[in-house]
Amino acid sequence: MSTDQNKFQAIISHCKEYGFVFQSSEIYDGLSAVYDYGQYGSELKKNIKDYWWKSMTQLHENIVGIDAAIFMHPTTWKASGHVDNFSDPMIDNKDSKKRYRVDHLIEAYAETLPEAEGNAVLAQMDELLKENDFAGLKTLIEEKKISCSVSGTSNWTDVRQFNLMFSTQLGSVTDEASEIYLRPETAQGIFVNFLNVQKTGRMKVPFGIAQIGKAFRNEIVARQFIFRMREFEQMEMQFFVRPGTQKEWYEKWKEERMQWHLSLGTDPSKYRFKDHVKLAHYADAAVDIEFDFPIGFKEVEGIHSRTDFDLKQHQEYSKKKLQYFDTEINQNYVPYVIETSIGLDRMFLLTVCNAYEEQDLSTPEKADSRVVMKFPAKLAPIKLAVFPLTKKDGLPEAAQLLVNECKQYFHCYYEEKDSIGKRYRRQDAIGTPFCVTVDHQTKEDGTVTIRYRDSMEQERVPLTEVKNIVLSKIM
Ligand code: ATP
Q: By alpha-carbon position, which residue is closest to atom 6 of ligand 1?
């Protein structure tokens, strides 16, 4: 199982150094598994969000978006099964008091074994998880003498369930206050609005509702940077279909979501599908789209066939009918649902890992290197950097005019400090696909030098063409 921890550490440092991601409340030593996005990170994140939103809503006539609240009526989570089932099996080491998610503990151990042996342990674990056999899981941990990384001992408690939802109080007077949860997924906001949207939007099954928003989970083992956070964002779409057609739609969405990932130009060998062994309480089929991160193949997105479970549960708990009258077959039914659910932060991490490249540019005469973020142009935080060659002779003014023309259309960056070479390197490090230099020749013949990030090639183009060149690559 090959991983590249050094590369991962270098990416984390780069994200901090160049204003992509900071630890939350860093001046107070941070808050575990909570992160802030900086000046370039927030742009990149927004561009990923927009790319997903546009592909889901604008490009699908039968999908509309909503923006539901984070707080929901507490019965929502009773109905959805989260109060009773949204938990992970945990085990504590009695000596160090450190708590582990059982699957993570066993997975970490399996990674230390030769591949075939490791896979056998994982298969055994999957079987026990599927059966909810907690005693069996503990026996497996003991038999394999799996130890705690802190105490080094195998002195374990029993395996127990631990609910991952955060709760808080609604209302100011303690006795009147009721316990509510921070939503652990955005999906339920869609289910409870199913009829509102269907009726007011006059939607016909099959149709979808998309949503982007924050979700919160009290993850026990929250490490690996923004891969697993306690506060994160999801981009989810629930697609409502006629019962009996869910298999077909599941396959279709599986394919379509993979195509979305590949449309960003990523090497297809870095992606794979992984079927779920243990299905969630609501699913009749589920698959993950995994990406080859420097820490190994890991889930970025899930496609789940959720049956009519959620709508039926809300119907039962709310006592309101959540049905659809299908005029084509003259029948009333509770639709089945195919869900596509991708973590925005994980997609961000994927984009950053896929873009990061350390290049040795040394020649026999001179040692040289660069770190370049090869973001797809449409996702790059800054699209165009404009440099006057010198700070005099009217060059800054001419460069500023170009920025003023282009900034209505896309994000530009103006810089006049240091050598052009240094300015290129700084833009490479934040992934700006185009740099333009305004020089003395510009004043004579109206041309500028455009320099391409990935090939580092330069050519002269008319100043008046710059806007269109950039626009043609980012649309
Ligand atoms: P995992 O197995 O990694 O905990 P999951 O299977 O519980 O994830 P889902 O409930 O299917 O995840 O959520 C859908 C998506 O939300 C995931 O594919 C992932 O991209 C994202 N996601 C889930 N939990 C987190 C988290 N703690 N931090 C960041 N993203 C998350």
A: 302
